[in-house]
Amino acid sequence: MRRLLSGVACVAWALFVLGAQAAPARPNIIFFLVDDMGWMDCGAYGSQYYETPNIDRLAKQGMLFRQAYAQPLCSPTRASILTGQHSARHRITSATGHQPPQRSDEELMSAKTGPNAPLLMPESKNFLEPSQITLAEALRDAGYRTAHIGKWHLGLTQPHWPERQGFEVAFHAEPSPGPASYFSPYGVSPDGAPGGKRHVGTITDGPSGEYITDRLTDEAVTFIESNKDKPFFLNLWQYGVHGPWGHKEAYTAAFAKKSDPRGVQGNPIMASMLKSVDESLGRVLAKLDELKLADSTIVVFTSDNGGNVHSNTGEDGKAKKRKADDPRLADWRKWAGDKPPTSNAPLRDGKGKLYEGGIRVPLIVRWPGQVAAGATSDAVVGCVDMYPTLLELAGLSVPSAQKVDGVSFAPVLRGTGALAREAYFTWFPHLVPGVAVRKGDWKLIRRFEERPRDYEGLYELFNLRDDLGETQNLAKRMPGKVKELDALIDAFVKDSGALYPRPNPAYKPAAAAAAATPAADPAQGLVPKGCKASVAGGALRVEADGKAPFLGTAQVKGAGPLTLQLRARSTAGGPGKVQWTTADQADFNAPGQTAEFALKPGAEWQDIAVALPIQGSPRIIRLYLPADQGPVEIASIRYLGADHKAVREWVFGP
Fold first, then answer.
1. What are the beta bridge partners of residue 646?
2. What is the pTM of this model?
3. Which residues of 303-323 are buried (b: 16+ CB within 10 A; e: fewer)?
């Protein structure tokens, strides 16, 4: 009899163990969100410059997604994570969470647009609607302890703070795009300088000089320790690596001595900030190990948009408007020169754009025993999918009252199935406005208005399997594929209730034409650096006001090799050169990517041809002129392809 009971007990124990493996207790959830971290900004995704041992270790312990998407800017992504909805539906489409809330959707379409714009573009809602049933509320109502620690940027006023959106513990600073200061004291004084006492939110100062990335980690670790015996949901949303780019100078100095073997990344400030973010993740993972919570905790690591490739560079308008003694720009110049924050190569462009560099982000999910360690996935997933996925992994259903656009990718994580979705959409009616759809290897971007300086035509079609850098627009060659994907966009706009651009009743074509004349933009989209450009005597006159004057452009899209045809004259004359980067490069220091020429002194127009042995498609071209010797006048600039046809030209005079 004893043997029988013993056997029954063994069977019962085996069934219990098997049942526990199949259906574990409610897991803890940690959502670690980095601000402005690009797809290539860690070792796990291919960087050979940044040092991210903890992120890389997490990738080896979980599943790494190669085709994960966010919105082009931070607030829309954050709102989609918490609601499971496309930005077209929740209406938060830009980074405006620090602005006063609007009253109605109609107010979003009443933008103050002048007579030179043919369309009224929708504005972004500035707050997360309280009627939304957020991910935090769904988990809290199921018995989870919930905390939001770090950047919020989803509402200025208290009714729209995280405390009102399901988070029982909240530690968040003023809701602006970046913190007033990365170092304590964190407040701002009435004149806007760091160190005052005007706080918005619940953050408190620490010891003088305390680094906010470390402080947020302290608060997160404290929350984990306090709730180790119950299921918890922790949003740890770091401010790094967003501006104002506070960094630990000891780390930065070490990275300043380092170079990237790939030759594409090399900003020591960004490397320093990423190192601090990586250390934060390492401390959180170590605490889970210490408390023996690692196996019962889902860790999600991702970014809120693509990497920043524009700020504080020679092409950055905000940087040019700052005073020379502005400490933010002075510190940047000291360590980074005119380098962009990062490079998303081989992806095109970056934050704020619908190209892959602006929306493709790192995504790693770890849950030991449930998600295969060291796995990779090519499933197309995005921020709208986090809501249904995490609820399913927690054994919970999506609240019936919450409209969710996302699809759970839990089957992908568990290795039991594929993602059940036809296409993925990105809605972004700002900056360079448009909407994108991804279906299989194909991506179509529909623009709302003609802007030839920013893109080629109203439709851009790319095959991402063959052309990850989005260098070849196939729209004109494949009208059938454009029609197929465009119909999907129409259905998406209708289903989501997107506020679509509409005709501007105040539009006056004459005013638009006047605004587009060379007088309004004398360089016609060319970006002067170290010089100023004006129209005089029927030509573009370039005069130096700094060192190494040049005209920069990212508008030359033809594949190399190219030929520059320049018609110019200069009384003083002097040497000039052309430098370029390609789609997979960020810096202008690669060998063989400079072509020199000479402008003879004199009053006669000179026609100069310069062969440019560009391999692939150029990303940025700089035309250096001897304007430091004396003014240079330009009649025309043409870039010709191998067929001797112009791929881009500027005509200013004879």
1. 640
2. 0.77
3. bbbbbbbbbbbbbbeebeeee
